[in-house]
Amino acid sequence: MKFAAALAFADPSQFLAVARTADQCGWDALALSDHVFFPETMNSAYPYVATGKPFWEQAAPWPDVWVTIGALAAVTTRLAFLTNVYVLPARHPLHVAKAVSTAAVLSDNRVILGIGIGWMREEFDVLGHDFSTRGQRADEAIVVLRTVWRGGMVEYHGQFYSFERLLMSPAPTRPVPIWVGGESNPALRRAARLGDGFISVLHSQAEIVALVERLNALRAEYGRANAPFDFCVSCHDANTLDDIRRLQDAGVTTLLTVPWLLYGDDPTLLDSKRRGLERFGDDIIAKMR
Hints:
The structure is a single chain. The chain is α/β, with parallel strands linked by helices. 39% of the residues lie in helices and 18% in strands. The chain has an 8-stranded parallel β-barrel with strand order 1-2-3-5-8-9-10-11, surrounded by 5 helices. Helix 3 links the parallel strand 4 and strand 5 (111-116). The relative contact order is 0.15.
């Protein structure tokens, strides 16, 4: 099993120091979340809590993930970087392909593109992308990304995106994994049909086991049962080494967590983050290897 620490809502001024520490104490990845902005007035419902209201403060930081990954890659040597999740259909896929391929080349292929279709209509409206077709466009965008990342002259002609022969350089020297988030039936099918992996929101162990089983059944339905596939999960009741081993036995390949929230320190402090990374590295990661 691999381990990723989530940087969502953390102070961006601490990111470089956090990345250096994670790189040194056994972590496999850092995860960065994505939104371009939040409107003063929002009618869209956040789908992952019963109230429909985002649980973070309006002024919470959302630094650009690709600028951030470039900076973090420059101060680390082995750590990978995961977007959790990048709102793919809120951008043109060629813009996304350029940013991701550049980050992959400069980081020596230490990039995983985690994508979602987005839930905030206001973000799409301001950016000029149709909210109602975002799922279909995300499906096409995944194909566009893989097409241009092959390198050389390529063309694509689909329902939403179309271009004649072009070359985007530099291209990644290895395929960039695309992990799909979202837990609606269309999102699970997208992950099973088009993804190299799946990213969950916060769940119990039992819920995660059911998700893995559901996705494996869908992958078999699409003839992809034997293709490599990653299950990246967040689990609120996996508190011990035995819990985490059970998740691994169930098929989980990456555990996403926030270690500085686990040990009772002030989570806003850089020293607390460092201690959380180091302690989790000693208590869990080293013993799982």
